[in-house]
Amino acid sequence: MLSEVALLLLICVHMRVQGKLRSQSLGCDDYLGSGKVVDKCGVCGGDNTTCRLVTGVFKQSLSKIGYHKIVEIPEGATKINVTEMVKSRNYLALRSRSGRSIINGNWAIDRPGKYEGGGTMFTYRRPNEISSTAGESLLAEGPTNEILDVYMIFQQPNPGVRYEYILPSEQIITPHQPTHTAHEDALNGQDDNKQQSHTQQENHNQAGVGKYQPNLPDYRVPAVVPPKHERDYNWKMTGFTECSASCGKGFRHSVFHCVHRRNHVEVSDALCESSSRPAPQEEACNLQPCPAFWDIGDWSECSKTCGLGMQQRQVLCRQVYANRTLNVHTSRCGHLERPETASTCQLKICSEWQIRSEWTSCSVPCGLGQRSREVHCVSNVGDFVPDEECNMNLRPADIENCDMGACAKSWFYTDWGNRCSAECGMGVQTRGVLCLSNLISSLPLEGCGNERPADSKVCNNGPCDNRIEWFTGPWSQCSAECGTGSQQRLVACLMKNDEGFTVMPPYECSSLDKPLSQQSCKIKACGAKWYHTDWSSCSKTCEGGFRVREVRCLSDDMMSSEACDEQLRPAEREDCRPEPCIPQIDLNCRDKYFNCNVVVQARLCVYDYYKTACCASCSRGENRQKTHRGHS
């Protein structure tokens, strides 16, 4: 009976507590009406000073296709958010410092979804799953238990990547400025020592300005706890949570409920001591591998900007195991129809050439001329566009030659000259006569005919009254067949009258300018020719001598040339003085002393006394020296 009374009392207390819970808010410290909440750093009743928000923007211009490191996520980071600022064809990738690729590693693009790494769960999103203009993103609650590296798989200009995460105050560090690492070079398959600049900023304000609101824990312990009877109630494992994966290895956790010790009937968890509640145990479940599937990549850009082109995409056979998507042999996807890896595409209709006018008339009335027409590159909406947008190999001709037939020819001539060839008496008057094409009239003639108009006629300036003048004869032939020569003519002083000419002394014409009687002439250019100097004197007065001269090849402008014929090259050396040398014996030239050889050895023959006293010896010595110089 007493136990029934206690039970009724407990029920009343519980109902009163439930009423108070409905009327008052429960603080994060399990006390009703305390008003305490979890701050941005996850501390109940905290003031946001135990952590800091670290933010930055990676906007370095890249040029090399492949993996480029963006930022390093430190150990202990929470509220991680890495997001492309604008959609692009680039991809984000995540890798742990232990060498494990978590997302988009080894040039394989993973599907959007959740991926475990660094002790937390990352959510990978693609642009087509987000309504905004932002690109790919990596999100995680954290905290991380190791350092993680975020990469960009660069394929087109970087639109900028914004990142942020929260660190405990004792872990605040300057965001890592990424450089190329050995791992990144290995991913790209190349060596690149260029460092990348990185625009970053650290938010030194409190974490309360962060983007994310922390998830409040689900505290279910009431602020006013009814009396506990520890000997009557205890914690008992009643089952497991649902497996986190239907295949490919998931995880589940043990579930504990408060039960009556005697009958094991579940009661309110408030009847058991919360501090003695066992920690949930994790175990693997659904270990069977998931069915293989075709992982389809994005289509590449069309191979042509207009007209029919081609585009490709990557198709891989993949299989999920332990929250990781692995590449497997294509035979495992044999039961599925393989998606196409190539397809035709057309972004727009190509521009085309259009002829917008007829041919113009020929530029000449006769003979060979040109004509033209308008040719434009026109878009599919009818606008004129630059010629480069059309195929230049198919451009119609916009100019061509035209033949208007043979032009008629006529005799053309100038007016008669105003000057007679003779100042008195009979002379000649001339004019120019040419056969030219007639572009104005359409005469049915193909030539000018044989009746050539006269180009000279007789003229008379009146009688000559004993007029004295210089008269010249014709020039002689040029003295040189090529190059510069000279020619002469006869110049005489004559008196002219009606009866004829009379030769006068030259002084009679001294008041008049005398014409030239000689002038230079040049029939044609000689081209390069051999030139030479005079022979030098003979090296000896009798046999064994030679002489030399200099020979050069010169062009018309007297510059050195190599165009002369070597077979016609004049000799530069020849023998001379072939007659034998006959010694002349001077009977008066003899030695007066027996030791004249000493005079020669002492070189005293240069003195007249010794030269006379030892004449024979000095003469022989001088002849030997001349012979020696001749041989050398």
Short description:
With 632 residues, the protein is mainly β. The chain has seven domains: 52-209, Jelly Rolls; 227-287; 293-345, no CATH class; 352-403, no CATH class; 409-446 and 455-522, no CATH class; 529-576, no CATH class; 596-631, no CATH class.
* Separate helix tally: 5
Radius of gyration: 59 Å
Strand segment count: 37
C-alpha end-to-end distance: 157 Å
Helix proportion of residues, in percent?
under 10%
CATH architecture descriptor of the largest domain: Sandwich
Uncertain residue segments: 19-23, 179-183, 189-230
Question: Top keywords for this entry?
Answer:
7 domains, four-stranded antiparallel β-sheet, 32% strand, seven-stranded antiparallel β-sheet, single chain, Jelly Rolls, mainly beta, 632 residues
Account of the protein in words:
It contains five helices and 37 strands. By secondary structure, it is mostly beta strands. It folds into seven domains: 52-209, Jelly Rolls, CATH 2.60.120.830; 227-287; 293-345, no CATH class; 352-403, no CATH class; 409-446 and 455-522, no CATH class; 529-576, no CATH class; 596-631, no CATH class. The strands form 13 sheets. Strands 6-7-8-3-10-1-11 form a seven-stranded antiparallel beta sheet, with no helix packed on it. A four-stranded antiparallel beta sheet has the order 2-9-4-5, with helices on one face. A hairpin with a 4-residue loop joins β4 (91-96) and β5. It starts with a helix and ends with a helix.
Question: How would the blueprint of this fold be written?
Answer:
Elements (H helix, E strand, L loop, with lengths): L1 H22 L27 E8 L7 E8 L4 E7 L6 E6 L4 E3 L9 E5 L2 E6 L11 E4 L7 E7 L6 E8 L13 H7 L10 E8 L26 E8 L9 E11 L21 E4 L7 E4 L12 E4 L2 E7 L2 E4 L14 E4 L6 E4 L12 E5 L2 E4 L5 E2 L13 E5 L4 E6 L12 E5 L2 E6 L17 E5 L6 E6 L11 E5 L2 E7 L2 E5 L13 E5 L6 E4 L12 E4 L2 E4 L18 E4 L19 H6 L6 H6 L1 H17 L1
Antiparallel strand pairs: 1-10, 1-11, 2-9, 3-8, 3-10, 4-5, 4-9, 6-7, 7-8, 12-13, 13-14, 15-17, 16-19, 17-18, 20-22, 21-24, 22-23, 25-27, 26-28, 29-31, 30-33, 31-32, 34-36, 35-37
